[in-house]
Amino acid sequence: AQQDTAAAIAFYQQAATHSILTAIPAQLHQLNLLLETDQPEAARSLLPQILAQIRNLPLGRTAVYARINYAQSLMKLDNRDARQTAQVLAIALQQARSLQDARAQSYTIGTLGNLYEQTQQWSEATTLTRQALVIAQTLDAADIAYQWQWQLGRLLRQQQDRIGAIAAYDEAVKNLQAIRYD
């Protein structure tokens, strides 16, 4: 927040020296900070270490959300290997299902839909985004649903469905208004 990137990175590195449960979030935050400050080479150098640690996490929410966060970082990095990102998300989805964690399932499926959006596979992206949205709506999770409604709006617009896109955007705005003060 104070725009002292070097100090923030140093603190993340210090936090990463503790237990694996604090190391992975610290490294993921450091990775995101490097991406936000346009340092792709430094970000790439962290990827193997983070992935190795994520693979060693025991099955649980921490592991699922770490994989989702890692995949989202890969997508920001403009990594040309969408298959690796899809594999990370496939494992996260498998783990979320085995934990019966519907929120994590929605996040994973929606993020996979975003990956397909980035690779311009509109039909698959739309199908996945709708699946994620249905799960979020079933949970009455407006904090998740608006993201998938916004994504669906972008996808429908891309497919020349203006009416559907506007409807999806309207629903996203309604959900944002509903959670605004929360």
List the SSEs and their pairings.
Elements: H1 5-15, H2 20-36, H3 40-55, H4 61-76, H5 82-99, H6 102-118, H7 122-138, H8 142-158, H9 162-179
Describe what this molecule looks like in 3D.
There is one protein chain. The protein has 182 residues and is mostly helical. Helices cover 81% and strands 0% of the residues. The protein is built from nine helices and no strands. Helix 6 runs antiparallel to helix 7 (122-138).
Principal-axis shape equals globular
Number of helices: 9
The structural class is mainly alpha
Average pLDDT figure: 92
User: Secondary-structure element order, as H and E?
Assistant: HHHHHHHHH
The helicity comes to over 70%
What is the chains' assembly state?
single chain
List keywords for this structure.
182 residues; mainly alpha
In short:
By secondary structure, this protein is mostly helical.
